Amino acid sequence: QLNANTPAVESLYLDLHRHPELAFQEVETAKKLAEKVKALGFDVTTGVGGTGVVAILRNGPGPVVMLRTEIDALPVLEKTGLPFASSVTTKNAAGDIVPVMHACGHDVHMSAWYGSAKLMADNRQQWSGTLMLVGQPAEEPLLGAAAMLKDGLFTRFPKPDYALSFHDEATLPSGTVGYHAGYFRAAADTITITVYGQGGHGAAPHDTRDPVVMAARIVLALQTLVSRENNPMDPVVITVGSIHGGTQANIVPDQVTMQLTVRTFKDAVRKRVLASIAREVKGEAFAAGAPKEPLVEVRPGTDAVYNDPELTLRMVGTLQKSLGAAQVVEMPAKMTSEDFANYGQAGVKAVLLHIGAVEPGKLAAAKASGKPLAGPHSPQWAPEYQPTIKAAITAETSILLDLLGKK
């Protein structure tokens, strides 16, 4: 059945890859997915949380199991050279024209989601319960899961007993599933810092209070929060990804703005680091004689993904039977973030697994040479989609059949 369905699944993948859409703009993507699963007999609702899709297949008594895929793409110019590469451009939320690419592999996830839906619909006699398919918008800005939950995902529709999602992985060979019980993906917070100074002539810095120098000192000081205030067993990442100030070389500006991303796992560490950032920023400005206190604005992103340990081990056992023990490997936690965390925070036993997406020989050669390969969010990211999608469907379906097994 899997082999028979492969042409239709791959056709969907190529179509999705050619026609990516940004967060909360996934109108055509959602329409395609909705039409596909509606034809399989699912009860489909669109427009959930903006552009989200919810498809329900009730098949007798039993648990409710949710399979989620992301549906949005990234503002990235594709440079893969593939014959089906995206050439799409569109307006982003700010009104700027940007290129669009499925640079994070959500097209792989959607295709496997549909392939698994087809197998589950065609084999209803083998399971009992309710299968809930969720096509989630806006994962990249970490807004879509919260939007769907706010729009009644777990009140308008059955609240799942279990939730499952897969993500493609650049460090594993295609067809291999990676798992990690417990904290797996980090919490994310965005901080905007505005440092105020006294502008003036670049040739007379003594008549100014230079916010560029303050900002430079802050960048360095923030790293001591990781190296000198944090237990090294509790990972923390503080990255200053954007810094802007001034208009030309001989002018000291009167303010500088910085944007940071902060990644943590534990709530206590998260709170302490955010407070310490504000302390360091204000302290450096005070030491420099700034005319007023800096502005520190925190925009919470998403919580850490916590894979339910018991459910993770159950899934691992199932996958070892369906894929083979050698194809199921434990992987380290990652500091990247995923708003799949929101479903676990809502009280559902949830597990996020990763699926290897790189040709094995290519991956082995890269490891031997020490040269890293392109990964998600890169304009060169090109998953080996055929074996990756096939393995993802096998993995998803085997887990769903186990969780929805007949009583």
Ends apart, CA distance between termini: 24 Å
Helix content: 25-40%
Number of strands: 18
Biggest sheet architecture: 8 strands, mixed
> Into which percentage range does the β-strand content fall?
25-35%
Report the total helices.
Answer: 10
Strand order of the largest sheet: 1-2-6-3-7-18-8-17
Shape by Cα distribution: elongated
Broad structural category: alpha+beta
Radius of gyration: 23 Å
H/E element string? HHEEEEEHEHEEEEEHEEEHEEHEHEHH
Oligomer: single chain
Mean pLDDT: 97
pLDDT < 50 runs, ≥5 residues:
none
List the helices and strands and how they pair.
Elements: H1 2-18, H2 27-38, E1 43-48, E2 52-59, E3 64-70, E4 89-91, E5 97-99, H3 106-122, E6 129-136, H4 144-150, E7 162-173, E8 177-179, E9 182-185, E10 187-196, E11 200-201, H5 211-227, E12 236-245, E13 251-252, E14 255-264, H6 267-287, E15 295-302, E16 305-307, H7 309-323, E17 328-330, H8 341-345, E18 349-358, H9 360-369, H10 385-403
Helix pairs in contact: 1-3, 1-10, 3-10, 5-6, 7-10
